[in-house]
Design a protein that fits this description.
It is built from six helices and seven strands; from the N terminus they run ααβββαβαβαββα. By secondary structure, it is of the alpha/beta class. It folds into two domains: 30 residues; 141 residues, Glutaredoxin. A five-stranded mixed β-sheet has the order 5-4-3-6-7, with helices on one face. A two-stranded antiparallel sheet has the order 1-2. The N and C termini lie far apart (66 Å).
Amino acid sequence: MNTILRKLFAYGSMGFAFAVLAFFTLPHYRQGESSVAGKTAYNFPIELNGKSAHLSDLRGKVVVLNFWATWCPPCVEETPALIQLNQRIASRNGMVLGVSVDEDQSAYLNFIQDHGINYLTYRDPTKKSAQEYGTVMYPETYVIDRKGKIARKIIGPQDWNSPEMLAYFDSLLGQN
């Protein structure tokens, strides 16, 4: 009887651990964290066309704020899709803003050149802006609506050109 209880406890513990792990890997968790939706996006300094600016200067645009690093394989993997997304949404007053947490400026600059980055990027080696958003893993993306409110938080790399994402951006870009 004691052996049966131990086995049941062991299987139950493994099942619980599996359920928790499965929850955090399911698409609904990775595709949008609702806890930050509606909050005002943290306003941090950036550089626009060689001049000091702030994220709030982009109000009126839908901003896809992507925290990334050159040393992050999933970040590198999603870069081509972000380039394509930026091309798709730019004419509709949308944009991708990549914030690199790279400490090595030359690695950052080489990456931008080597990968043909066509969207606005900013390097924040202090990671302050990422920390203000609560970002601890990369890539992590926040979709910010035209009013400067967070519409969605997306954890991990994405296929930014999937039919679901394109429909989402069509809907968001159609709003005033």
